[in-house]
Amino acid sequence: MRERTRLDEALSSYFGLERELNDAVGMIELAEAEGDKELVAEAEAGLAGLKARARALELESMLSGEADGNDAYLEVHAGAGGTESQDWASMLLRMYMRWAESKGHKVEYLEESEGEEAGIKSATILVKGHNAYGWLKTETGVHRLVRISPFDSNARRHTSFSSVGVYPVIDDKIEIDIPEKEVRIDVYRASGAGGQHVNKTESAVRITHLPTGIAVQCQSDRSQHKNRATAWDMLRARLYEAELKKREDAAQAVADSKSDIGWGHQIRSYVLQPYQMVKDLRTGVESHSPQDVLDGGLDAFMAASLAQKVGVEPAASLTDID
């Protein structure tokens, strides 16, 4: 039923654009015949708007996966490198939160493990919004940062790594059965964001799926009961996402990219010094304004990854994507 609704919406949008295109072309022909330059300019501006809407519709059509329309869990983990990588992990988390907010999505903070001196060791957020998982799913992998370290008194250049994982929220239409004998549940005192109350009781919950080793944790609420329920939802999402990956030809490549947070496994490089550039190593898309990217300007990278996934030639730079 949901797929049928999507198809109807797509067809309606397509035929709507086609009607507006025919109207605009007819208006231009009429205006040119009458020598009305102002009307020609107005119609041409309308065509530019149609082009942007057609591009957006094309991108939306790529989000046809079973769970693409769902909300998404996003995890960030610092790689080896101590404070440097932990600070980079916090920068990545901020980047995705800014992207989500720019789309009007709602962001819920689920878990955080603070860094020893700065940043975070890990964090998990829930992104709620239309096609949240569909857009974010290609962000899974290792992200590399090159910069002059603010923590190095000698102002030397450092390379840091952090990994990102994205998993769909599973709705009631997708059944994931997890026998309780296959999990271990631990409770502990929460740390990090969440207010002073978090350390007073053992309200945080960690659930480990023993057959796969997949572990999730939640400390967002005062109630252990609520944190436990959220953790179960997160675990179902992780197991579902793992099953989806098995169906794809690229499953081994994805698994390899997660095997080591370091050299040779990154999907994107963010260079702040000696020059400024962000480059996606899968698609070749790049930006020479890394601060805009770190402020949430990820649409072009996501669009190119989605296009590559469905066999469309990706653009080479941000300026190539209208």
What assembly state would you assign to the polypeptide chains in this entry? Answer: single chain
Q: Termini distance?
A: 33 Å
Order of helices and strands: HHEHEEHEEEEEHHEEEHH
What is the β-strand count? 11
Instruction: State the share of residues found in helices, binned by percent.
Output: 40-55%
Please characterize this protein's 3D structure.
The chain is α+β, with helices and mostly antiparallel strands and 322 residues long. Helix content is 40%, strand content 23%. It has helices at 2-34, 37-61, 83-102, 132-136, 224-246, 251-258, 290-294, 299-309, and strands at residues 72-78, 106-114, 120-128, 141-148, 157-168, 183-188, 204-209, 214-218, 266-271, 277-280, 286-287. The strands form 2 sheets. Strands 2-3-1-5-4-9-10-11 form an 8-stranded mixed sheet. A 3-stranded antiparallel sheet has the order 6-7-8, covered by helices on one side. Helix 1 packs antiparallel against helix 2. The longest helix has 33 residues, at 2-34. The model is unreliable at 194-198 and 314-322 (pLDDT under 50).
Ordered list of secondary-structure elements with their pairings:
Blueprint: H1 2-34, H2 37-61, E1 72-78, H3 83-102, E2 106-114, E3 120-128, H4 132-136, E4 141-148, E5 157-168, E6 183-188, E7 204-209, E8 214-218, H5 224-246, H6 251-258, E9 266-271, E10 277-280, E11 286-287, H7 290-294, H8 299-309
Parallel strand pairs: 4-9
Antiparallel strand pairs: 1-3, 1-5, 2-3, 4-5, 6-7, 7-8, 9-10, 10-11
Task: Give a brief rundown of this model.
With about 325 residues, the protein is an alpha+beta fold. The chain has helices spanning about 1-35, 35-60, 85-100, 130-135, 225-245, 250-260, 290-295, 300-310, and strands spanning about 70-80, 105-115, 120-130, 140-150, 155-170, 185-190, 205-210, 215-220, 265-270, 275-280, 285.
